[in-house]
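User: Can you fold this complex?
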Amino acid sequence: MKLSSDKKARLKWKSLDVLYVLVSILLALVAGGVFILITGNNPLQAYGIMFSKAFSSFGQVLRRATVYILTGLAVSIPIKTGVINMGGEGQVAAGALTAAVLGSAFMLPLGIHPIACMLGAMITGAVLALIPAVFKTRFGSSEVVTGIMVNYLVQYLLQYLSMYTFRGSANSAQTAEVFDSAKIARVGDAQWSYGLFIAIALCFAMHFVMSRTRVGLEMQSAGLNPLAARYQGVNVGRMSMLAMALGGAMAGLGGSLEVLGGRYLYLDTYFASYGFDGIAVSYMAKNNPIMIIITAMFISVLKVGAVALDRQTNVSVHFSTALQGIFIILLVSPYIVQAIVAKLKPKRKAQLTAEE
Amino acid sequence: MELSTLISSMLRLGTPLLLAALGVLVSAKGGIVNMGMEGNMLFGAFMSVYVTYLTGQPMLGLLASIPAGIIYSLILGAFIIKGRGHQVVCGLGLNFVVIGCTTVLLSVVWNSSGYSTDVPRLPQVKLPFLGQQSISLFITAVLVVAVWFFLEKTNTGLRVRSVGENPAAADSVGVDVVKYQFLAMVIAGALGGLAGAELAVGQMGYFIKQMTASKGFLAYSAVIFAGYNPYAVVLTTMFIGLLDAVQMRAQTMLNIPGQFLLMLPYLVTLLALIFVGDKKKPKAAGKTYVRGSF
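Assistant: Here's the predicted assembly.
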């Protein structure tokens, strides 16, 4: 097959991108290994436990990945538009509660009920994401700080709602179980539901919207260079609000899919950390919606593996949080990884010439 | 409710915030948006409790938090200044690293998933009217003046500020931008470490998982409200401390669900951001300086 030089160049850049991501993952795993060594465990054994557990219970990986795909999208669309969605945490949980309440409050016909729950969750997520976006465009305050403040407000509000208003169990702060009509079917006897396909379909849809439609390209141009975009007649403020609302809707949907296809109810603090994990998912995928499917799986493997590690050793499940942090910082400071790759390269060239 | 108990708990809740805010302020003046303050505090808190646990000396714990904070801040600085990373995202990422690592180490050292064992606290002083305070209150008071003096009255402080306002101009007259940014990060790290230590060994006397609970971000907001002025930072952080104190008192006195009271500091911070915006921000804060392409 013959490729045009333009395509070749693009392919080269893409493969370089993949190389940097892989090197970053490798570096992070090495750093994590050193940390495990400090805690007095054998790193190889620990990683062995993590990955073997993840593959033996792959259904669980897919179930978690369903939410991670959507929280990843919730970060990547705003990032492409130049805003950071730090409120994923609250949006996921609020979406989950909305879905649980709508699913358990009234009966609806079989096909419509889950859709109504999902729509409700998406609207909740979008509204929550709009708060930091409006603050940013109207008052110029950092969306990171406001996003985190909103997270705390939502966290306490949900705690109250699940403890008093919508409480469905005497023993713990949780809602009633959703009706069967609202449930999304699981695939066979597995842990994961058909919600995964919704999430994957949305990745492709978002990729199409961002790269092939007018509004998507306007959003991207607002992210790449707001000033130039403004001169071209793009309303940057409106685009960042739109992107945040879309992202929030994705996060809310993620929470609702876990309720409708997994847990079947809202449990306080059960939905913690999904939103923050989405940041790592998105950055590892270089904010590319389709790559998010792969990185969501990877983060999910780490998370499921870390739970097993927690049970079998004294390394707690938060080890995966630390690993994700290392991924993030390595991936957003490209010069560090580039410098390492560049150091390796001349050696390889020298080797090759020596072999010849 | 007596005014003096309210003021006393305001001071106790506000001091760690104030130290962290001073750190955020110095790094912002040097042109770096320090979203990693949260992790900086948490790491300082952990190390201070750990050293106190090993030696039984809370003063050593307090001292240990300074190098711990500096190391953390230098790592963040290396990624931002040398690695040219996105400042906000790097800070957030490093927060996750510290949240993860300290929680893992918590279970390794104390074999518990939530709390460490109790360690001795810093010497407490009983003051007239202000109630019981840890001695780090006085250290903080000195540091406020020191930070102001450093930024406004010394040559080095002037250079740090010039790097934050216009790094290209500073570079053109021979100011080493990278050096002064790292210097700002070192100072911020030391202050952030002390903030964590004040929280952990100054007041609580133990370490809890994620004990900083977004205080780093509240500190960042306090700096914005204060218009990047070291003295105004005292007022804004103490105001947030006061809100927290009022909230705690109200929990026991009023019949409002606790969740709504816990929201108070975050809600007020959020609303205040409407009126303040971020206009006084140093011009180059958030952008990484690359010579020739700025």
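Residues 2-276 of chain B form a domain with the ABC transporter involved in vitamin B12 uptake, BtuC fold (CATH 1.10.3470). The longest strand of chain B covers residues 124-127.
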